[in-house]
Amino acid sequence: MSSPVRGPAERLGGLLIDLGTTPGPAARRYLAQLRNRVGPELPVDVRWTGPEDDVPANTRLLRGGPGARVLARAAESAASRGHLGVLLTPLLTDSAVLGGLLDAFGLDEMVGFVAPRFADERGDRVWFLPGAAPGAARSLPRQCLSLLPPHYFTTERLAACLIIRREVAAEIAASEGSLESLPAAVLEATLAARRRGHRMLVLNHVVVPAPDAWDRLYPVLDRASSDELYARWPDANAGEEWFDELPHQRREVLAATARRARPASNLPVLLDCRGVPAFHNGTSEAAIGLLDGIRGIGPSWVIDLAFNADAARFHRIAERYPEMKVEHGIPERAYASAVCLNQPWHVSTVAELHRRGLTIGFNMLDTIAWDVVYLGNPEMAKAWHFVAAHGDGLAYISEFTRRRFRFRFPLAPSVLETVTHLSLDVADYRDPALADAPEEDFLLVFGNQYDHKAVAPTVDLLNRAFPFQRIKAFGAPDEERHNVTVLQSGHLSSQEIDRLVASARVVVFPSHYEGFGLPVVRSLAYGRSVVVRACSLWPEIAGLMRMPGRLVQFSAPHELVEAVGKLLAGEPVDALPFGGGLAGEAPPPGWRDCARRLVDLVERMVSGASPERWYARDRALSLART
Amino acid sequence: MRILTLFVRHGTSRYPEALPELRRFQRSQLPTVDHHLLVIDNGEAPLQPESGVEVMAGSNRLWEFSAWDEGLARVGHRLWDYDLVHLVTSAFGTLYTRYIDRLDHRLLEQVAGRGAALGHIDRYNDPVELLGCSTQAWLRSAFFYLPPAELATLGSLVGVPDPGLFFSEDPAQPFRADAPLSGNLRRYILDWLTGPGTGQGVTWHSRFVLSRETLPYFRAKVLALLNEQMLAIRLRRQGCALVDVTWLATRRAAGWRANIDVFPDWRVQLAERDTDAVPLPAP
Lengths: 626, 283
What we know:
The structure holds two protein chains of two kinds.
Chain A: E1 12-20, H1 24-38, E2 44-48, E3 59-61, H2 67-79, E4 83-87, H3 95-105, E5 111-120, E6 125-127, E7 139-141, E8 151-154, E9 161-164, H4 166-174, H5 182-195, E10 199-210, H6 214-217, H7 223-232, H8 236-245, H9 248-255, E11 267-272, H10 282-297, E12 301-307, H11 309-314, H12 317-320, E13 325-328, E14 335-340, H13 347-356, E15 357-364, H14 368-372, H15 378-390, E16 393-396, H16 399-408, E17 416-419, E18 442-445, H17 455-465, E19 470-474, E20 484-487, H18 494-503, E21 506-509, H19 518-525, E22 529-533, H20 537-542, E23 550-554, H21 557-569, H22 591-607, H23 611-625
Parallel strand pairs in A: 1-2, 1-4, 2-3, 5-10, 11-12, 11-14, 12-13, 14-15, 15-16, 16-17, 18-19, 18-21, 19-20, 21-22, 22-23
Antiparallel strand pairs in A: 4-9, 5-6, 5-9, 6-7, 8-10
Helix pairs in contact in A: 2-4, 2-5, 10-22, 13-15
Chain B: E1 2-9, H1 18-29, E2 34-41, E3 54-57, H2 63-75, E4 84-89, H3 98-101, H4 105-111, E5 116-119, E6 121-130, E7 133-139, E8 143-146, H5 148-154, E9 167-170, E10 173-175, H6 183-194, H7 215-237, E11 241-244, H8 245-253, H9 266-272
């Protein structure tokens, strides 16, 4: 942010410093250093118990009377020239910081108070604001500062450095406060001003490094002052309670995980795999393939995996990924990114990830459930609209899926996208033990009972067209037909399925609608001829692979019959060309390549973590709850 | 250690040896560092491919400052792959350069991942006021290092808003009467660009006579100077310490035992240099 130009009225009219009981030599040294930093012209008032002779010539000593009176005197003289700065401890701030704070008054004329953030000068960490920060964390790495919005409105909080707007200072000068403690008098001034509409702004990118402990930078009133103040201002707590409900603290805890530079650059990332079932299907194969790829790449992440317990056991996740922490359910920790390896089925899943991740992403496998309606539900539609509007990143397993999703769920411009694809490497699909399996004389029809898979009408058609051809079919109705064997995929091991694929003479995959078509890729890897219903998905993935099999499309039933007939007869067919989308002799993408795209998406999500997007998502989820 | 170097030049006819010299510096003084070099060329001539160098065109809108912004936009989120970003111009070998000889990776280690910017601290003899801020010292912008996080917080290296705030049409009085510059800063600038320097015994190598013809160049040069000084102000504002190379090398020569926890005020640093120290009133 470049610096706006302040008019003469937005200058600092004076600086009041509470030196308390600072010993004389330290006070003199401090005032000399401060003068160097704030320039020779700024009028400085100090409240101090030390001797008057020790105060530099260009500094006014204010003593005697309660803190409220001291504040009023400083305010009176400052307001005649400009705004009033207050340092409640001898902080070594400088004119760059004060100038940055003053600039904020130009943002909104009702801003009454402006405060900076404070950093521990030894640890390069920025202190959290007072309030209900979750957990014991009290600071975040300053490397995460860029992830914070430029400012927060807060309620009335004491801070060791504050600038009071000139108009508010003028009101203070005219008031007759009696509080003994100067911090209490300042807090009372903020309460009074707030009731007139003057709010406090904290500037996150204006930072004062200080050696002081947190409780000196955010002073807490002594009991007597506090009791007196709260007796006068019954709504004093209301502001605090309100602020505690604000999301800033929650987000800062998340932002603190997203340190992107030395010394510790390992990002904590949650991969939500709770959509993986305790059996083999496309979802589990895609998720485990991507996890294998991520493990192979070894990104600078600390990865937690969220699995349902039965699925984790079935897929032996703990043994497979010993370097990742496997959680049964979703852990209550903060992550730089929380990514669901499948599409969300309910907004509550989005909320769960949002609560844990500074950024959230989803891997969209397909949009079938929404389109066919009967496999989905209204909550799923809300969730998909929600992530299209409020997610940080979306991955798709094909360009085909990306196009479907974007057309149905208009994407906010800020949502990052990637098409990961799934592996198209022969080696990832072919069991070497079955590579030379002898071809047998049967057609294999792949699918399941869902209507879009079109297994039943396809088996009917093929049965009528080729009444003497043996047909084995996954997902066909269990009807008595002399040449048709009905298979239940859930009853076969993956090895048995592979054996069927490897030995089929022709594989027919009649589905109307797929996100990727893993059985097609597997069949091609075994060198099979595969007949699929024409769809832009197939040229897309054919262009990215080099398979020993052939991929033939059909549109109408007679084309299916014709294609199968030619393949059974060993006649030439029009197969889709392979590898057209690959550069030169580049190998097809394997799981590592797919995972690399996902990793890159997450890295971009974290690097570009936008406060605006997070707050918008938080508000939207809050509204959804109500 | 990985360093991204954003090298800004205006064609290759001026300072033709700057890029080879920079690469010699990288090889000889930072041999263990993994360097990535991006050249941003603000010149008008079409870019020519250069072997082993990534070159992009810069707009020259605000000289090196806009060029660095444009380079960072090109790098995008890959910025976070680096420990430090080296911001350098083709003029880095002019004026005082002894500090460059003191640099090595151990010095850079002291600022990587910290709230600190490392370079050569220059100063005026007395405080000046720019855009309402009192300031006296800055980091020479021809050659300095910043951690990526500080760049990300900064947002843009351009810190001076509307240039129209500063200049008149009169070469005899080139600054507007109400320009947000103190009187002594105006004098320092004029003396540096067109006169005897700023009272520190050094004169600028490219002084010129201010006239109606040279007024556009004067404005552009002044904006670069003001952006350089605003950069120091904005870094201090976000809590980023300015660290002087010579001071840090002095501390290293004295045998530091551990990382330096707190970088002292620039006055202390300049006074403690083992060469070219600047004795200033004790802060």
